[in-house]
Task: inverse folding
């Protein structure tokens, strides 16, 4: 039996549908020719709720849509004692985990650790970076 890969979705990645109109879940199915399970950090939920409370306009709508998608898509929530999402992701990753993020600084740190990444290209499709 093939073990499913863990894909961890960063906060900014979950905002893509609201910001760019890209269906990240259909795109993930398109680019992932292997079994996978989606995960988010517990602190990501808090960040999304913060965006909804403190933002206005498009940012608020993107945050609301992201929260709705998390609930609708049966995404596993990883609890962490670390309050900062990027730090929590960096602390738990290994070569078996793929991280979906738009954060340039986080991507650089993950690349140095040899972690595969999923990112948005040309504001319209996803790619996997080795």
Result:
């Amino acid at each position: 039996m093939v073990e499913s890969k863990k894909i961890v979705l960063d906060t900014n990645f979950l905002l893509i549908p609201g910001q760019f109109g890209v269906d990240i879940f259909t795109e993930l199915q398109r680019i992932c020719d292997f079994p996978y399970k989606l995960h988010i950090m517990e602190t990501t939920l808090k960040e999304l709720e913060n965006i909804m409370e403190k933002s206005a306009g498009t940012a608020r709508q993107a945050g609301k849509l992201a929260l709705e998608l998390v609930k609708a898509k049966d995404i596993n929530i990883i609890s962490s004692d670390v309050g900062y999402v990027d730090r929590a992701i960096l602390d738990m990753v290994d070569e078996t985990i793929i991280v979906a993020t738009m954060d340039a600084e986080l991507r650089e740190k993950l690349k140095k650790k040899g972690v595969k990444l999923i990112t948005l290209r040309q504001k319209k499709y996803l790619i996997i970076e080795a």
User: Anything to note?
Assistant: The mean pLDDT is 93. The chain has one domain: 5-129.
